[in-house]
Design a protein that fits this description.
Length: 172
């Protein structure tokens, strides 16, 4: 779930500790919680002047509303944009799957639509042996937001983020 590329160019994979860049073929799926670059920047890597999937056997699941966002579509038209180097590469290779609403990936692994940080924001529920884990992406940025939903990260737009996020938070 979610990949990002730290300054030292090692891929950081959230939730999937068993995956490493040294063994990229072991990963078959990534769930991108939303189309903000810090959540998907590690899905491709540059080799010989071209961008290629960092995990060539992995399908990536992105909320359709994020893909269809006019800003995303405009960025994809620019061959030098970060979106083009990442999401565009995955899309051209058939490795990007767009998700509408909720989706069961595997028994016990469910993508749940949770608009808020973005229109296509999604979270993941993993249920196994009577235990449940939620991977929340940016549904919350800080624990205080659980009790005070109107308190949010300073970069968030209160006119759009709060009205969209609160129903998603309550659903959880």
């Amino acid at each position: 779930m979610d990949t990002s590329l730290p300054k030292d160019n090692r891929v950081e994979v959230v939730f999937t500790q068993a995956i490493s860049p040294a063994h990229p073929c072991t990963c078959i799926a990534f769930i991108i919680t939303h189309a903000h670059f810090d959540h998907y920047s590690g899905v491709t890597t540059q080799r010989d002047g071209h961008y290629i999937p960092a995990f060539p056997n992995a399908h990536c699941f992105l909320g359709r509303a994020d893909w269809e966002n006019p800003e995303t579509q405009q960025a994809l038209q620019d061959p030098d944009s970060e979106d083009s180097h990442t999401l565009g590469v995955l899309h051209r290779l058939g490795l990007l799957e767009l998700v509408e609403g909720d989706r069961e990936l595997l028994p016990g692994v469910r993508i749940i639509a949770a608009p808020g940080e973005s229109a296509g924001h999604q979270i993941v529920r993993v249920h196994s042996e009577g235990q449940t884990l939620y991977c929340l992406g940016d549904l919350y940025h800080h624990a205080v937001e659980v009790e005070q939903p109107a308190w949010m990260a300073q970069w968030a737009n209160p006119d759009t983020t709060i009205p969209a996020a609160i129903p998603s938070q309550r659903q959880l």
